[in-house]
Each structure stands twice: as C-alpha cells, then as structure tokens.
Design goal:
Immunoglobulin-like; Ser-Thr/Tyr_kinase_cat_dom; Phosphorylase Kinase, domain 1; 24% strand; Transferase(Phosphotransferase), domain 1; RTK; tyrosine-protein kinase; transferase; 24% helix; alpha+beta; kinase; 5-stranded antiparallel β-sheet
C-alpha cells in the first residue's frame, strides 16, 4: 500500500472496489477486482450514518434586554449512550436578510447543561433585525448534527419628547421602575424554575422513578427507585469528598458519591439492578464519563446485602483484562452500596447470537442458499440432589424461577436498551469469540476466582466486537464449597456443583463448554427437551448436550472433555486458550456445511 494512504478519502461503512493490476506491458497486463465493505467502526473512527446525535427543539429566548438564552433538547430515548453523549457544540449566527456566511458565536466544550447564555447581545445583534442561529452538535464519535433557528432582539424605544402631554416625570419614572421590577422578578422566577428542573432531572441522587413492566405476572407497572443520598451537601456539590476518603482510611476503590449523576434505570435481575450514570473524574479522565452502576434492590434483605458486599470484595480483586468488564470503583461508606463499572452499550452475546439466527433465516428465505463466505432465561433454581447417584429415581426440584433474557421478558442486569452492534455471520469471528471468552476466564483462573455463572447472557459485546465477561454476583475465591443450597443456573453449572456444592476453575470449564454450545447453536436453550427436574439424572447417566451441526468433530471432542465427570480430565483455561488460538489454523466452526433448510434448536423451552 502507498505510504500516504491516509490521504485518501476512505470512510467506514462504505463499499470500495479494490483493483490489483500486475505487469507493466499493456498487452500482458492482468487485473483482478474485489469488492470490500469496511465495518461501521474501524478502531475509533465510525460511519456517521447510524451514529449521529439526536438533538431537536433549538430555540432562542431574550430573558433580559440584550441577553439571550439558547437552549436545545437531546433525545436520549432508545439511543446508544455514546451517540447522545454530546462532547462539543459550535454556535454560529448571521443576518437572515443578508445571507452572509455564519460568524462564530461560541464553542461550548462543557455540555452538561442544555442551554447557553449570551449576555450583552446588543454588541453583536441589531435590535429588531432577524438573525439565524446555527448549532452544530458533536458526539463521542465526532459525528455531528446541525440545527437552525431564528430570533431577533426586542427594539429599544427612545423617547423623542420628554414633556409628554398628560404625564409627569414622576409617573413615567414610577412606570419605568415598576416595569423593570416586574421584568427582573420574572427573570428570577424563570431562572429559579430552570435550576429546579435541572436539579430534578439531572442532578446526583435525586429521587427518580423508572416505569418497568412486570413480565412475570403481568401485574400493573412497578416503580423502581434510584438510590438516594441522605446529605443535601452531596446533592448540590459534586466536589464533595467524604472525610474517610480524604483521610485515607478507605481503599483506593472508594469513590465520592457526589460525583455520580444517575441518568436512568437500565435493568434488574436475579442478583441486583443496574443504572446508567455519569461519574466525574474517573479512570484518569477529566469531566464526566459514562458508566454502569450496580446496586442491590431497594429494601433488600440482609442476606442479599451480605452477598453484595461479598461481590464488591471479589470485583476489587479482578484486576484489568480486555475481556473482563472494567471496575472503576465502589461506594461502601453508606447504603445503598454501589459498584461503578465500565458501560458496554451493545448488549449481551446471547442476543447477538439470536440476531445471527434471524439473519440466517432471512438469508435462506430470500435466496435459499448459504450466506457464509468461506431468555429464555437462566433457570436459577434450588437443586435438591442426593449425595449418591441414583439413576433410576427422578429428582424432585422446586419450581424454576426465571429472569427472562429475551426482549419480551424480564430483563437481566446485562441486558441493555441501546443500539446493537451489527451482527456478522462469520466462522472466524465466532471462533474468535470463543477464544476471547477463554482468555478472560484464564485471567480469572490465574486470580483464583471462580465465576459460577458463566453463560452467553453474562458476556457483553461492545461496538468493536470485543467480548467482556461480567456479572460477578455469584463469584467466589476458588475453591469454594457452599454451605447452603444456593440458586444455581442449573443448565450451565457443573455436575459436582449441583451434587456437592463444590466449585473451582474446572467447574467454570464445564460452563464454558455450554457457552461454546450456545455459540454453535446461535443461542439455543441447553437441554431444551429435558425438564428441570430431570436434568441431574440426565447428566448422572452420562448424557451430554448433542453436537451442534456447525461444530467440527474436533471442537465437540473438546467440549466433551470439558464435561468430563472427573474434574481432573477437564482442560484448564490456559490449555483452552492454546487450543482455540486461531493462529493454530484449526477449524472449529463451519457454517458452510449446513443445509440451507437447517433449523437451529429452539431458543426457549
């Protein structure tokens, strides 16, 4: 490639013809052309077709003579947070009559507010003349949207005759003073109401409600309360820092609560609830950064509080890894306790796989040919399993509890409202997904942490298709023996964990193989033809998940090793990383062998 390739206009999301020409002799020159479509995002540069910010209702109001308030609204509903995160605003103006080029009015670099005040407008604008305001909004991707509006300053009335008939100077002065007083009082009321509204909508720890539908029993809408603070000083001063942090009596993970701005409730599930928020000055970045914040439910019992404190202790030990969701800090000095973590805007792996399934169906419906170029919920239940194996007896298990993972059921903490990354049916990508998960679990294995809830629903994907393992509500230091019969994701958990409540990294290896099965079946529900009450006897009898049609025999043999009854026969995650490395040129997933009429196993029971 030419060294000055950067000079060429190449844009993400566009399709280009690449021609390769060999030979300098015109009579013997050979040329080959290929079409190549760049992804929507390449590194940090993205196509703005689907990533432009959504801003409307640009308006200008003169609240004092010569002083104008330029305001706008940012549409945050149903959008990717990185899209509506406005980072810069350019304000320009020009005379509407002359249609001259725009003049710069101001550049707004701090965009926490939704308005801009321009005072002494008489120095820039002629009263009574119509002007056009152009506002250009830029977001995190440097994508922009331009809004326009018109305004004019009120004309100043100049009295030509100071001896008006029927009026004395005293009356004129009284009227002028009264008018000024009313104007100033009205301006004060408008400003005060605006600040109160801003306090209610945007400020830290205000009491806010998010309406959510109860999918389990179809009861009327429930209301979720965002965690509240108890000190007014913390509400109004983002620079407030707790004394314990200043004194150094807490660890480096403790963050000042006053720096948190809750934006909205995202999801709730079996082990907590998650909010979208902005936090000031974290991760060595000035200003506000978008985060996800996990908390326990309002009014949670003491055992859930104790479990959440244990989760905080675990996440502090995670360290950093590209395939583990990043933890920025926590708040433990007062309830409700919080975990502040990296926000991943594109949903979980299971929903991504289901999207691939829909692509497969649509492609075969349209073309009747292969398209490859080469929740249901986790059933968290209380297992009641005898210590000895009794293959002939059916086990009696309590009713399954669900926290549905699909778009039409109860959401889990890892589900999100926002825009999804474009799914791609590619053999190599799905194999690379498996490698990324193995690398993340290898890191946990090296830290002595057992996840205990590894599943596709607990793996997030970002806009660059990087997978990140999350949801450490059940995680413990390895090895771990539970003294009570906890709720477990029965269809993903290892057999020894069900029978003896014993967990170590090899238990996670079992779950990892179930995730491989989910990838190979594009999000199918494990053991879909086996009832909850019969899962344990099914496994004890030696039965395992069937081979997905897209998996090679080599990969399925590896999955069977992970499901070995004897834990010492299972590979470690370090070995799995070595085996799944794409540089080994092994082919583990091959969609090319599928019949176009093939139906993947169901995603629900």
């Amino acid at each position: 490639l030419p060294p000055d390739l950067y000079r060429y206009e190449i844009f993400p999301g566009c399709t280009y013809i690449i021609s390769v020409i060999t030979g300098r002799d015109k009579n013997r020159r050979f040329q080959d052309d290929i079409l190549y479509t760049l992804p929507e995002c390449v590194v940090n540069k993205c196509s703005c077709i689907h990533l432009s910010p959504h801003v409307n209702n640009l308006s200008v109001n003169e609240f004092n003579p010569g002083s104008i308030n330029i305001s706008w609204e940012i549409n945050r509903e149903g959008s990717n947070e990185t899209i509506f995160n406005i980072t810069r605003i350019l304000l320009e103006y020009r005379s509407k009559a002359d249609r001259v080029p725009f003049n710069k009015l101001a550049t707004v670099d701090t965009v926490d507010d939704d308005y801009f005040i321009q005072r002494e407008g008489y120095k820039l604008f002629t009263p009574g003349e119509l002007y056009e305001i152009q506002a250009t909004f830029y977001n995190t991707f440097e994508c922009k949207v331009i809004n326009y509006t018109n305004f004019s300053l009120a004309a100043l009335e100049v009295l030509q005759d100071t001896t008006l008939k029927g009026f004395s100077w005293e009356i004129i002065l009284l009227i002028a003073c009264s008018s000024l007083t009313i104007l100033l009082f009205g301006s004060y009321i408008i400003r005060r109401n605006r600040l109160i509204l801003k306090e209610i909508i945007c400020h830290t720890f205000s009491l806010r409600f998010a309406r959510t539908e109860n999918y389990a029993d179809k009861s009327p809408a429930a209301y979720i309360i965002i965690p509240t603070a108890v000190k007014r000083e913390e509400e109004t001063n983002p620079l407030y820092i707790e004394k314990e942090i200043l004194d150094g009596t807490v660890d480096q993970f403790e963050l000042p609560r006053a720096r948190i701005k809750f934006l909205k409730y995202l999801k709730g599930g079996e082990f907590g609830q998650v909010f979208l928020a902005k936090v000031l000055n974290i991760d060595n970045k000035p200003g506000y950064s978008t985060t996800a914040i996990k908390s326990i439910r309002e009014g949670a019992p003491d055992d859930e509080k104790a479990a959440f404190i244990m989760e905080i202790d675990i996440v502090k030990k995670l360290g950093e890894h590209p395939n583990i969701v990043k933890i920025f800090g926590c708040c433990q000095l007062q309830e409700p306790y919080l975990i502040i973590m990296e926000y991943i805007p594109c949903g979980d792996l299971r929903n991504y796989l289901i999207d691939l399934r829909e692509k497969w169906k649509q492609q075969n419906k349209d073309e009747r040919s292969p398209m490859f170029s080469e929740t249901n919920s986790a059933a968290y239940i209380f297992p009641n399993v005898p210590r000895s194996q009794k293959k002939s007896e059916a086990l009696s298990l309590p009713e399954t509890e669900y926290s549905n993972l699909s778009s039409d059921g109860n959401p889990t903490p890892t589900d999100c409202y926002l825009a999804k990354v474009e799914s791609s049916l590619d053999n190599n990508e799905l194999q690379h997904f498996a490698l990324q998960i193995a690398r993340g679990m290898e890191h946990l294995e090296s830290m002595g942490i057992v996840h205990r809830d590894l599943a596709a629903r607990n793996i997030l994907i970002n806009e660059f298709r990087t997978l990140k393992i999350t949801d450490f509500g059940m995680s413990r230091m390895s090895p771990y023996v539970s003294g009570i019969r906890d709720k477990v994701p029965l269809r993903w958990v290892a057999l020894e964990a069900i029978e003896n409540q014993y967990y170590d990294s090899r238990s996670d290896v079992w779950s990892f193989a179930v995730v491989l099965w989910e990838i190979g079946t594009l999000g199918a529900f494990p053991y879909g033809n086996v009832a909850d009450a019969k899962i344990v006897t099914y496994l004890q009898s030696g039965e395992r998940l069937e081979r997905p049609e897209v998996c090679t025999d080599e990969l399925y043999s590896l999955m069977l090793r992970c499901w070995s009854r004897a834990t010492q026969l299972r590979p470690s995650f370090q070995e799995l990383v070595h085996l799944l490395d794409s540089r080994k040129k092994h082919i583990y997933v091959d969609f090319g062998q599928l019949n176009p009429l093939y139906m993947f196993p169901p995603t629900k029971e």
